[in-house]
Amino acid sequence: MRLLRITIFSLLFASASLSGYPLTLEPIRYGDFSQWVTREINESKLIGGKTKTVYEIAPATKIIGNKPYSNMGGSPWATSNVYAKVSGIVKGSNTVSPATVNGNKVARLESKMEEVKVLGLINMDVMVAGSIFLGKIFEPITSTKGPFSKMEMGIPYTKRPVALVFDYKVDMPPADKRTKATGFSSKKTLQGRDNAEVYVLLQQRWEDADGKLYARRVGTGRERYSKSVPWTKGHQLKIHYGDITGKPFYKPWMGLLSGNKAYYARNSKGKLVPVQEVEWAAPDAVPTHVLVMASASCGEPFIGTEGLNLYIDNIAFGF
């Protein structure tokens, strides 16, 4: 009888351990961040004429010159790194770059201030938070207005993973302040601590007769990090299916993305339009698209905390 009790306890303990880890992993292509494109952007002489190194996540190669970038080698990843040309002035911005942690190449996402100097005077400051996401950026960027309208968010995907799995680290400055700087007005200091963030959202999209895009939210996994986190391997961000608004873990920032919070995608006519999330899908719904993003900020565009760094590696879907 004693042996039977020990055996039952052992089986229960093993079952509990396996329920959380390990999972069967489906790596996202290039999500090990071992390969990078290196771009050399020649900034305008009016702002100093420097050569800016800008990175992209794709098969290793080098691109020299001011050329718009589009995803290479089948890479699904886009970044906040851009080649901008505003009123004829060329500027490069780089907030995502390769870094080495414990001997492995990873992605480093940082929040920092991009300064544009004309004739020796600073006339434009833009706060940029490093981010990576599944989708595309459309270059050159010609203004800081409507940033979501310059990117396509999400890729086709029809599976139902239970988690997004990744390795990560957060370096959080001890500051409960954020800076808002869009380049068109003076910098503003905002109270409150910024957070790093990772999320995975599953959507069921459709298009109406006018070419407008809508979506039901199928699955939600979203975390924010308000303090430093040491290097952590195999972290599991659980995906919750169906309407989660009544769950104890639900936060307002996990809600539907609509209005000015909606991300953009191309419709069947090739036009970039917002994808309005209008309702929660049934718990057993099958998605059509997935959104994955990691960012060194969780606020609105052009708001962040200098020195906030998020390191991430080995991103995969877990089943």
What does this structure look like?
- It is built from one helix and 25 strands.
- The chain has 319 residues and is mostly beta strands.
- The chain has a single domain (24-318), classed as Jelly Rolls, CATH 2.60.120.
- A hairpin with a 2-residue loop joins strand 6 and strand 7 (89-93).
- The two termini are 37 Å apart.
From the 3D structure, determine the CATH topology. Jelly Rolls
Number of strands: 25
Q: pLDDT average, as an integer?
A: 89
- Largest sheet features: 10 strands, mixed
- Supply the number of structural domains: 1
Which word captures the global form?
A: globular
Provide a quick synopsis of the model:
The protein has one helix spanning 2-20; strands at residues 25-27, 37-42, 51-56, 61-64, 77-79, 82-86, 89-93, 96-101, 104-118, 121-129, 131-137, 151-153, 155-156, 163-171, 177-180, 188-191, 196-207, 213-225, 229-238, 240-241, 264-266, 272-280, 289-295, 303-304, 309-318.
Tags for this entry?
319 residues, mainly beta, Jelly Rolls, ten-stranded mixed sheet, seven-stranded antiparallel sheet, 1 helix, 6% helix, globular, disordered N terminus
What does the secondary structure layout of this molecule look like, with pairings?
Elements: H1 2-20, E1 25-27, E2 37-42, E3 51-56, E4 61-64, E5 77-79, E6 82-86, E7 89-93, E8 96-101, E9 104-118, E10 121-129, E11 131-137, E12 151-153, E13 155-156, E14 163-171, E15 177-180, E16 188-191, E17 196-207, E18 213-225, E19 229-238, E20 240-241, E21 264-266, E22 272-280, E23 289-295, E24 303-304, E25 309-318
